[in-house]
Design brief:
Blueprint (H helix, E strand, L loop, with lengths): L1 H31 L7 H8 L6 H15 L14 H5 L11
Helix pairs in contact: 2-3
């Protein structure tokens, strides 16, 4: 009986670890995975939803997404999630991507 309980515990722990790893990979992939070009517009729409300058925000966000295939989560900040998006600068040295 004790051997069966021990085996059940080991199987339960192994399955729990497998699920944890699977879900952590899914969460990580959501933020940093390469987007398809068709995913850029909806992601940029959300990214630019809080600004009063929607047209230029959408233009540059889509341009950056087309190049980097990544859009940071949220409406502001979080650019560290997309290194290309974060490091692309204007001639003056300011951020190119919103």
């Amino acid at each position: 009986m004790a051997a069966r309980s021990s085996t059940s515990s080991i199987v339960f722990i192994a399955l729990s670890l497998l699920l944890l790893l699977t879900f952590s990979n899914v969460a990580e992939a959501y933020g940093s995975a390469r987007l398809r070009p068709s995913d850029c517009k909806p992601r940029c729409s959300y990214r630019c939803s809080a600004t009063s300058h929607k047209k230029p925000c959408m233009f540059f966000c889509q341009k950056c997404c087309a190049k980097c295939l990544c859009v940071p989560p949220g409406t502001y900040g979080n650019k560290q999630v997309c290194p290309c998006y974060n490091t692309w600068k204007t001639k003056e040295g300011g951020p190119k991507c919103p």
